[in-house]
Design a protein that fits this description.
2 helices, mainly beta, four-stranded antiparallel sheet, 47% strand, Immunoglobulin-like, 337 residues, single chain
Length: 337
């Protein structure tokens, strides 16, 4: 056997062994440029819009949508945790986990969930993104004024009119009979919807201002109000003369309180009252979560009150000094005697 034959035979044996090894041991002939498993692409929260959903007398549903931004290689096993935390107690009111699965490509993926919470106070809505059980990103939004959301059964396109030249409730004196006065009441109602509205009633309650005693009460039906129109509900009550009264008007639809307004009747010539202005409108708000650092209360002179106390008593500094000097002199004189 010559040298060429021996070389060919050895090369053949090496080739056969390599093939057998590749078949028996996967990866034995790996690509030298292979860097191993692909690293998953980054995932982060781009934005978290929140909108109110179904509202009942006790609860409100918040529709939370998280937009996940993904870049690079595919990312498997992605989940999103949504939870609502009470702003006052810091307790988790409710939570929900959504399985997103695999994210691919350079794009944004919306992930949605509904959180039902009590219709009061405010909440911090947290969104936590996990990849293979490991937290990769977090976002927080704050919602407040949930009590301002109107339940479906109390919604109405009709409300008391309010403009510069049109008062929601007007009061005039109709007639007088001895110590009794008849008041003519009128409530202006505007239909801001796109369809006629009926099945409405207005209750007028007349309260004596000083005692808050109800002097008279009457309920009248409201005729159908066409879309975009304003109509009035009229009634009369009889009350004692020479007193001042608050006139409350309550709008009802199918026994549900829809709206209210107030006026006054000044029948006492020596004293006048005005309508109550203690009501404060609450609005539903959604904002980014930020920690607010409490500042010390401001002092009356415009400075900052740091909680320090003043040791001197105004107006007594000179007197106290004179008394102290006289006491010292007297004590020294007695010592010398």
């Amino acid at each position: 056997m010559n040298r060429e034959t021996t070389f060919v035979a050895a090369a053949a044996v090496v080739a056969v062994v390599s093939l057998v090894a590749a078949a028996v041991v996967p990866g034995a002939l790996a690509d030298p440029t292979d860097d191993g498993p692909l690293r998953p692409g980054p995932v982060q929260v781009e934005e978290v819009p929140i909108t109110p959903g179904a509202v009942t007398g006790e609860t409100a549903t918040l529709a939370v949508e998280t937009r996940l931004e993904h870049r690079g290689n595919p990312t498997d096993n992605v989940t999103v945790l949504f939870r609502a935390i009470d702003s006052e107690s810091n307790l988790v009111e409710t939570s929900r986990t959504v399985d997103v699965g695999e994210l691919t490509g350079d794009r944004e993926t919306p992930v949605r969930a509904n959180l039902t919470v009590a219709r009061e106070g405010g909440y911090e809505i947290e969104t936590v993104v996990f990849r293979d059980g490991e937290r990769v990103d977090t976002a927080s939004r704050r919602v407040s004024g949930l009590e301002a959301l109107t339940p479906a059964y109390a919604r109405s396109n009709v409300e008391f009119a309010e403009s510069t030249g049109l008062q929601p409730v007007s009061v005039s004196v109709g007639s007088a009979d001895g110590d009794q006065v008849t008041l003519d009441l009128s409530a202006a109602l505007t239909n801001g919807g796109d369809a006629p509205t009926g099945d409405l009633e207005v209750t007028f309650v007349v309260r004596q201002a000083e005692s808050n005693v109800v002097a008279d009460r009457v309920t009248v039906p409201v005729d159908e109000i066409r879309a975009g129109r304003t109509s009035t509900a009229d009634a009369s009550v009889t009350v004692p003369a020479e007193y001042n009264y608050y006139v409350d008007a309550i709008l009802w639809r199918d026994d549900v309180h829809v709206d209210s307004a107030q006026s006054v009747a000044n029948l006492d010539p020596t004293e006048r009252i005005s309508a109550d202005v203690t009501e404060q409108e609450v609005e539903f708000e959604v904002e980014d979560f930020e920690s607010d650092d409490e500042e010390p209360p401001a002092a009356e002179d415009g400075g900052v009150n740091r909680g320090t106390t003043q040791s001197d008593t105004p107006g007594f500094g000179v007197v106290v000094a004179v008394v102290a000097l006289l006491s010292t002199a007297l004590f020294a004189r007695r010592r010398s005697e």
